[in-house]
Amino acid sequence: MNREERLKAILDLLGEAGRVTVEDLVDDLDVSAATARRDLDALAEQHLLVRTRGGAIKQSVAYDLPIRYRNSMQASQKSTIGATASSLVSRGDVIGLSGGTTTTAIVDALSSRRDLMEPHPDASLTVVTNAINIAAQLALRPQVRVVVTGGVVQNHSYELFGPLAASVLAQITMDTAFIGVTAIDPVFGAMVNDEGEAAANALMAARATRALVVADSQKIGRRAFAMVGGAGLFDGIITDDGITAEQRQAFHDAGMKVITPNS
Predict the structure, then answer these.
(1) Which domains does the chain have, with CATH numbers?
(2) Per residue, what are the HEC states of the chain?
(3) For the whole prediction, is pTM greater than 0.85?
């Protein structure tokens, strides 16, 4: 287990139990006590937990909202996609994040980057999001400037959509937008289950210099109700190594770049 995976595991343990001890981490993560203490200190510096004597307790607002997201399917693949997406982000960027479990994994990856989270008088990153869980996770990080679109909350995805969201998005631009989807097909493009979400996600993608779909390989070739857009809107897709050679070629033929951890 690498450091990023350990930090995420610690946050998961805190989300479930509310507190952890160094001894818990030594047993559960198979690390030394010194490593456990360093990991807790690193998370405390990012305001993701509160250090106590011999362990830590969770921050009051960092876990309650996103808890259903951490129990999602394909968690390992989403974590890998999150790390890949994070590697495409540079200090000073303005990025867009739609709602969804995969974009939440991007937040986890960004939050473990020391170059973005170290104290600095200026914001190291600006995040535009229409997802209230993502805004809540980032609100405790003073190094990140968070812009929330406003709008009506979609209760199953925590996303904001409607005229208010569209009004804000129409007034801003982003370097890169990462858009989570329910399904993606080389021919039909990216899709979600709700037409309001689709409209907000499409506008966010359109306002970015580079727009990328983030989707685990289980979503490739599937269909959903509402179209977000295809190669005319998106520059590419970030997915996991489960994508087949045939699927990769189909996206290439459609004009979309495929980005995987080993590409």
Answers:
(1) 3-58 (1.10.10.10), 68-259 (3.40.50.1360)
(2) CCHHHHHHHHHHHHHHHCEEEHHHHHHHHCCCHHHHHHHHHHHHHCCCEEEECCEEEECCCCCCCCHHHHCCCCHHHHHHHHHHHHCCCCCCCEEEECCCHHHHHHHHHHHCCHHHHCCCCCCCEEEEECEHHHHHHHHCCCCEEEEECCCEEECCCCEEECHHHHHHHCCCCEEEEEEECCEEECCCEEEECCHHHHHHHHHHHHCEEEEEEECCHHHECCCCCEEEECCCCCCEEECCCCCCHHHHHHHHHHCCEEECCCC
(3) no
